[in-house]
Specification:
The chain is an alpha+beta fold. The chain contains 5 helices and 4 strands. The chain has a 4-stranded mixed sheet, with helices on one face.
């Protein structure tokens, strides 16, 4: 494994073992829940937004290492940013994960670059973006539950 991959692995493990901004924020102004029914990842994103700026972000829930690390990195990455910059960051991150030919803006993505290796595993992309879709819903659609997949339907007789 080269040194850059090792560094990214360490970043993911660090955010998984010691997630930043984890917990309940009763004073949140914005909130949404996200769920990936295929793997069981669940996340709640809570924000304090004032004058169009994300002043604080927290998350809680359970999930795999990628999902937890992504949510942890997200809470640091969006703090202090205007909502339009938060949305642009999400779009850049999503494009970097899903478009092999995308030019990656490493400086803008910062620690999010540690998660770019999941693009080799399409099912893991949903783990990496769940918190981000949930964040987007918190900013635009108060109280909605985001799902990466439709829940399986029960067979009818």
């Amino acid at each position: 494994m080269d040194s850059l991959q090792e560094l990214y692995r360490e970043v993911i493990l660090d955010h998984t073992k010691r997630p930043r901004n984890y917990g309940e924020m009763p004073e949140a102004t914005h909130e949404a829940e996200g769920h990936n029914p295929l793997c069981g990842d669940c996340v709640t994103i809570q924000l304090i937004v004032a004058n169009g700026i994300v002043e604080r972000a927290t998350f809680r829930g359970s999930g795999c290492a990628i999902s937890t690390a992504s949510a942890s990195i997200l809470t640091d990455a969006v703090r202090g940013k205007p909502i339009d910059q938060v949305e642009a960051l999400f779009q850049a991150f999503r494009k970097a994960l899903t478009d092999d030919a995308a030019a990656v803006d490493h400086e803008n993505l910062g620690e999010l670059c540690a998660l770019l290796g999941v693009r080799e595993f399409p099912m893991r992309v949903k783990c990496a973006t769940l918190a981000w879709h949930t964040l987007s819903a918190a900013l635009t659609e108060q109280g909605v539950v985001v799902a990466t997949e439709e829940a399986p339907h029960a067979k009818s007789d």
